[in-house]
Design a protein that fits this description.
The protein has helices at about 15-25, 40-55, 85-95, 120-140, 165-185, 200-210, 210-215, 230-240, and strands spanning about 5-10, 30-35, 75, 100-105, 140-150, 190-195, 250-255. Helix 1 crosses helix 8. It is an alpha/beta fold and about 270 residues long. The longest helix has 21 residues, at about 120-140. It has one domain: 3-Layer(aba) Sandwich (Rossmann fold). Strand 4, helix 4 (about 120-140) and strand 5 (about 140-150) form a beta-alpha-beta unit. The N and C termini lie far apart (about 40 Å). About 40% of the residues lie in helices and about 15% in strands. It has a 7-stranded parallel sheet, sandwiched between helices. The protein contains 8 helices and 7 strands, in the order βαβαβαβαβαβαααβ. Belongs to the short-chain dehydrogenases/reductases (SDR) family.
């Protein structure tokens, strides 16, 4: 990874996006932390800054030195569901440096029976998911060998009940990843997806409740939920030189959940 390189993470205020931003900050000069919630993005920026201070206090050195006038992390408020989202993020990224890694880690999810699902909800899932990801990736100026990663879902191939909008959006997102990997191979830009299983994030705890979430985790093949840092590690691998010939791939990080669904009757 070259000096002066930029990583951009959409959804950096969330559990998985935040973990990705913190990991990439160890390898890139600047991380642009994008979230519709500016305060959440700024918390991730502060966490990155605190980690740098801790390293300095321990006598360690950052992996790369920031370029002239650069900041280790920068927050940006932008909503993936809004028209012009890609242009907003792309313009800010262009001010900060060549994009070596871009991560799209947002989605819109409503749990409701399909017969009750509104058109607006379905459209919102598609706008925040595949449409937002496409507009984001297209708006960036990639450095040679850049790695673009979408955070996908098992729902792409496993149509869970009461999640039609989310299922459909991830099905379309998968085709965005495959198509861009195909079309952009000749310019050396790699496009992949990381597909998490059930990951223990603050949002999941709010949705299910801490005790119910813990109980559900015990029913999973590994006896626990995945951690955001484990998803981020897969993103980091795809951004590395070791993955230099990987594009159009879907790296599953689910603790064998997708291969075990047929027997997980308690969930």
């Amino acid at each position: 990874m070259e000096v002066g390189m930029l990583a951009v993470v959409v959804g950096a205020g969330g559990g998985i996006g935040g973990a990705c931003a913190r990991l990439l900050a160890e390898h890139y000069d600047t991380v642009l932390c994008v979230d519709r919630d500016l305060a959440a993005a700024e918390r991730t920026v502060q966490e990155i800054a605190a980690a740098d201070r801790d390293q300095a206090g321990a006598g360690a050195h950052p992996t790369t030195a920031p370029g002239p006038g650069a900041r280790r992390a920068v927050a940006l408020a932008a909503d993936a569901g809004d028209v012009g989202f890609g242009q907003i993020v792309g313009a800010r990224a262009a001010e900060l440096g060549p994009v070596g890694c871009a991560v799209y880690a947002v989605a819109y999810e409503e749990h409701t029976p399909a017969v009750e699902l509104s058109r607006d909800s379905l459209v919102q899932s598609l706008m925040v998911g595949p449409v937002g990801a496409f507009e984001f990736f297209r708006a960036l100026t990639p450095a040679p060998g850049a790695s673009y990663v979408a955070i996908g879902s098992l729902h792409e191939t496993q149509p869970f009940a009461n999640c039609l909008g989310y299922n459909a959006a991830h099905g379309a997102l998968g085709q965005v990843v495959r198509t861009l990997a195909h079309e952009w191979a000749d310019r050396g830009t790699r496009v992949n997806a990381v597909v998490p299983g059930w990951i223990a994030t603050p949002g999941e705890e709010v949705f299910h409740g801490a005790e119910a979430l813990k109980a559900a985790g015990q029913l999973l093949p590994f006896g626990r939920h995945g951690r955001p840092e484990e998803v981020a590690a897969a993103v980091g691998f795809l951004a590395s030189e070791a993955a230099g010939y990987i594009s159009g791939s879907f790296l599953t990080v689910d603790g064998a959940l997708s291969t075990s669904l047929a027997r997980l009757r308690g969930l």
